[in-house]
Description:
Layout: E1 3-8, H1 16-29, E2 33-38, H2 46-49, H3 61-65, E3 76-77, E4 88-92, H4 98-107, H5 111-124, E5 129-133, H6 140-148, E6 151-156, H7 160-175, E7 180-187, H8 193-204, E8 208-213, H9 216-220, H10 227-230, H11 235-239, H12 241-253
Parallel strand pairs: 1-5, 1-6, 2-4, 2-5, 6-7, 7-8
Antiparallel strand pairs: 3-4
The protein binds adenosine-5'-triphosphate and magnesium ion.
Amino acid sequence: MTFKIAVHSFKGGTGKSTMTANLAVSLALEGRRVGVLDLDLAGPGLHVLFEMKPDEIKHTLNDYFLGACTASDIAIDLTDKMHLTRGKLIFVPASFKAEDIVRVLSKGYEIGMFRSAIDVISKMYDLDYMVIDTHPGVEKSTLVSMGACDLNIIISRMDSQDIFGTGVMLEVTKVLEKPQILVANMIPPGVDKEKVKARLETLFGTQVITAIPFYTEILRALSSEIFVLKNPDHDFTSTLRPIIEALELKASLQ
Ligand SMILES: Nc1ncnc2c1ncn2[C@@H]1O[C@H](COP(=O)(O)OP(=O)(O)OP(=O)(O)O)[C@@H](O)[C@H]1O
Ligand SMILES: [Mg+2]
């Protein structure tokens, strides 16, 4: 069975795509067979993190939703490109062409088609995990992916707008009766991350699985690499450990 995870936040720029890509690669490094899918149809970004050249992407999720190709056409095996000697990494891109973005956003897509694509690709590659990146806020992709997933990761920064929005996202997971884990990201320098964690836990009445500091090294990497691959000994890599352990545990109980 493929354990499906969606990464959400209410506000943009909280680190969803960075988290999605780095978690997917971290799980593959553990020897897992992992799919990673870009459902941020309005603002796709994973192709940049995976350093995809235009000619490496033949078909996208947009083509599939618009009926121009099959689900099996949109999966790209990045295992060798990422020099992964264990596990598997399968990438499902969204189109970054303005015309394709406008077409899919104006025409919409069927929820059933999304679920079917995940099923087909998961079976095709015998995936242990599928990690899904989403658009910020509460919109169709939020509900579609939350509904289809076994677990939602909600990311929050410390900004008051984010904290307000995180409350909204947690409410949505409750309404959809979906489990979630909460991650605090970009803790400002000089702020005690354990205090932040405790404050959020009290505020939301739920555990914060990890509190990740703001690392200038990540910002300086300019979203042009998978940070955990290039920097296995960096603190960021160890701050992801509690998430990976929680995913492994939850997937094993599935
Ligand atoms: N812990 C961190 N410390 C410093 N910079 C970070 C951290 N996490 C992410 N970033 C940086 O923040 C920026 C936004 O990250 P990312 O694109 O992953 O956010 P996002 O939530 O996917 O944004 P959007 O909502 O626009 O899709 C990127 O430049 C990324 O490198
Ligand atoms: Mg993003």
